[in-house]
Amino acid sequence: INHKSIKMKKLFFVLFFVVGITSNAQDKVVLRQTFIKVKPGNNYAEDLKTKFGEIAQKRIDAGYQLGWHLWEVVGNPQAPFTHIIVEPMMISQMEKERTREGWLEMRKEAIPSMTDSDWTTFMEDVRDKRDIVAEAMFVTVTEVKKNQNVNLPGDFGIVNWMKVKEGKFKTYENMEKSMYSNGIGENDLRTGWSLARRIDKYGTDVYWNYFTVDWFSNYNDYIKAAANIPAWDADKNYQNMMKIRDLRETVSIRKVIMLE
Question: pTM score, two decimals?
Fold first, then answer.
């Protein structure tokens, strides 16, 4: 998100949620995020789970994307968004609908019963119920699981958006990875940890360009972990990492639907 258009007290954007998918270098998996603010007093949150979920499943079945993940913000009513949609897809899948003609072909193939009039009516209803706060694209850098029985993304996550200095991306990634060189301890209430890099915007005026997610089984485990962390001072390695990155914002998210 561009610093010029996103103010710290108004927007942060663009989670959540890191999915560990691998592919070859020619056709890489990328993830598109859409941050949504549902307006009070309407059923749009339910529409996301039903109407949009149904359309997304048809797109997945038709081969236009790999998944559709819906997340809701928890315990943060002042946040500039209420929900996040994450859509993993291959680059080749994105190219199929980069033009209006390609998008219409996708709609015809994935949702053949929907006419232009149906789509116009559907979107007019939607626009009165929500605002799209921001969008972004990212790729997974790495992830760590507590054990082999864990599937990521988890059911609940703490997302931390970072601004890393230009020219220090590799250094930052290596620093983050080194903190988990021994994995996640058995007594740790986290189920996993993920690191992702933003790919749709670059430059010194970008508001954020990386994020991490601490995964938990549920909200209560996160509260227990946070409540039992004693005050601490950063060691030398962590101090060095803080010199090259700023923590911009933290938001808690809970999984609503995950379609594949």
Answer: 0.80
